[in-house]
Every structure is written in C-alpha cells, then in structure tokens.
Amino acid sequence: MPRVDHDLCSGTGYCAEIAPTVFTVRERRAWLVEQTDGHPADPELVRRAADACPWFAISHTDDAESP
Questions:
Q1: 10-14: long-range contacts at Cβ-Cβ below 8 A with a sequence spacing of 24 or more?
Q2: Which of 15, 20, 48 minimizes the C-alpha distance to 33?
Q3: Least enclosed by CB within 10 Å: which of 12, 13, 44, 65?
Q4: Which among 54, 56, 7, 45 is positioned nearest to 33, based on CA atoms?
Q5: Domain architecture of the chain: domains with CATH
Q6: What are the average pLDDT values for consecutive 10-residue runs of the chain, which has 67 residues?
Q7: Which UniProt keywords apply (predicted)?
C-alpha cells in the first residue's frame, strides 16, 4: 500500500504524472486516489513514482509482507 508523508511532500506532481490512477495533487500535496475496484495499486507504478519524488515523500508496503 502506498503512503505519502505530507510533511515531506512539496506537491511537485511527478507521482501523479507517472501514476495518475494512484496519486493526485491537491493544495500543493500529493494524495492517494481511492482504489474503488478492490485491487491494490500497481506496485511497479508506485515504485516508479516513489523513485521520481525529489522529497522522498512516498513509501510503499507490500500487503503480502504485512502481518
């Protein structure tokens, strides 16, 4: 599951450009798009978005690895 640290996020929007089905930018902060289809966000898209974030505000946990 992706997470955005709003204390670090500056709203550059790279995440929303790379993964618009996962992230959106409002009020100069990235927010998660609600996944209404019941499927988790594509981990590859989340990884690419996290790698592109200049503020390292995006993290991702694999639900399969969570207890």
A1: 10/54, 10/55, 10/57, 12/53, 12/54, 12/55, 14/49, 14/52, 14/53, 14/54
A2: 20
A3: 65
A4: 45
A5: 2-60 (3.30.70.20)
A6: 96 98 96 87 95 97 58
A7: 3Fe-4S, Electron transport, Iron, Iron-sulfur, Metal-binding, Transport
Half-sphere exposure of residue 18: CA atoms within 13 angstroms, side-chain side: 19
Tokens of 50: 């996290």
d(CA 1, CA 46): 9
What radius of gyration, in Å, describes the C-alpha atoms of the chain?
A: 11
